[in-house]
């Protein structure tokens, strides 16, 4: 698939959105930005809520693809998750369908399978077709998003790559994150691959770097043309010295979702 020129980036003011705003233009993309809050230094960005169907329709008009990062990215009461992550994602898909946008890259999450036991040494990597076991209402909303993407492919022929993102920061900050970290550079490489791969239909991939301590199988991501270049192991000595190795008897350490299974961070708004 030729690289789409104009891409709508929702959630452009968030942490991941900010990183991708800086990295994706180097791949030749003309980004149209959307967020609930104004974006400093971006006077042309669209400021709109995912509940504003008219604004979403206008935002997707004329774009070649959408990277959908917007929504609540931590745990929250179900009614807030419902409005932002479930109804909001549906509204975006409907707007894209009405405007003839053929591809969406959907920011799913490892928390869609957060109650999955993490692999121990010698265990096989977790495949993308492992049964979903969300650890929060947030993870549940990402499960919904993956099903919505499958439905829009089957019903309307709209393609989606659902990326189960681990943790995309400049560097990992915990021992768990050594297994699920995605460097910003690899994040941009993966999104570029998701935008340009041929015939993705609805493809689910894991979003991480090629970490020495990797927990999940990157085969489907690589099949898109993703070639991760980074590894969290360079940070391991420091983090293990500070926090110790993961304890399989600790529920936070025993499950893929980490502390989301016991004491999830709460969305502050």
Task: Quickly list its features.
single chain, alpha/beta, seven-stranded parallel sheet, 9 helices, 34% helix, globular
Structure summarized in a few sentences:
The chain has about 270 residues and is of the alpha/beta class.
Strand percentage lies at 5-15%
Compute the number of strand runs. 7
Largest sheet: spatial strand order: 3-2-1-4-5-6-7
The total of helices stands at 9
CA distance, first residue to last residue = 39 Å
Order of helices and strands: EHEEHEHEHEHHEHHH
Amount of helix: 25-40%
Radius of gyration over C-alpha positions, nearest whole angstrom = 18 Å
Which of globular, elongated, flat, extended, rod-shaped describes the shape?
globular
* Main β-sheet description: 7 strands, parallel
**Unreliable spans:** none
**Oligomeric assembly:** single chain
Overall mean pLDDT: 97
Classification by helices and strands: alpha/beta
Describe the structure.
The protein has helices at residues 15-23, 53-60, 78-98, 137-156, 177-180, 184-196, 219-223, 236-243, 251-254; strands at 6-10, 30-35, 46-47, 65-68, 103-109, 159-165, 202-207. The chain is of the alpha/beta class and 269 residues long. It is globular. The relative contact order is 0.15. The model has no long low-confidence stretch (mean pLDDT 97).
Tell me the layout of helices and strands.
Elements: E1 6-10, H1 15-23, E2 30-35, E3 46-47, H2 53-60, E4 65-68, H3 78-98, E5 103-109, H4 137-156, E6 159-165, H5 177-180, H6 184-196, E7 202-207, H7 219-223, H8 236-243, H9 251-254
Parallel strand pairs: 1-2, 1-4, 2-3, 4-5, 5-6, 6-7
Helix pairs in contact: 1-6, 2-3, 3-4
């Amino acid at each position: 698939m030729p690289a789409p020129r104009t891409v709508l980036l929702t959630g452009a003011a968030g942490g991941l959105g900010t990183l991708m705003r800086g990295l994706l233009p180097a791949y030749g993309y003309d980004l149209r930005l959307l967020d609930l809050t104004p974006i400093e230094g971006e006077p042309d960005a669209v400021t709109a809520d995912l509940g504003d169907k008219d604004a979403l329709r206008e935002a997707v008009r004329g774009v070649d693809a959408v990277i959908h990062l917007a929504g609540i990215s931590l745990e929250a009461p179900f009614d807030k998750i419902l409005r932002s992550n479930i109804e909001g994602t549906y509204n975006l898909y409907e707007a894209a369908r009405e405007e003839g946008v053929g591809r969406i890259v959907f920011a799913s999450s490892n928390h869609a399978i957060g109650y999955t036991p993490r692999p121990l040494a010698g265990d096989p990597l977790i495949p993308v077709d492992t049964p979903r076991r969300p650890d929060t209402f947030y993870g549940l909303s990402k499960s919904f998003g993956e099903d919505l993407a499958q439905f829009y492919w089957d019903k309307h022929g709209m393609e989606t790559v659902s990326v189960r993102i681990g943790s995309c920061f400049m560097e990992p900050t915990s021992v768990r994150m050594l297994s699920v970290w995605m460097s910003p550079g690899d994040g941009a490489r993966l999104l570029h691959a998701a935008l340009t791969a041929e015939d993705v239909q609805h493809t689910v991939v894991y979003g991480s770097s090629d970490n020495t301590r990797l927990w999940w199988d990157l085969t489907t991501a690589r099949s898109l043309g993703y070639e991760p270049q980074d590894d969290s192991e360079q940070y391991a000595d420091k983090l293990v010295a500070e926090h110790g190795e993961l304890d399989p008897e600790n529920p936070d350490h025993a499950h893929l979702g980490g502390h989301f299974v016991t004491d999830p961070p709460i969305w502050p708004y």
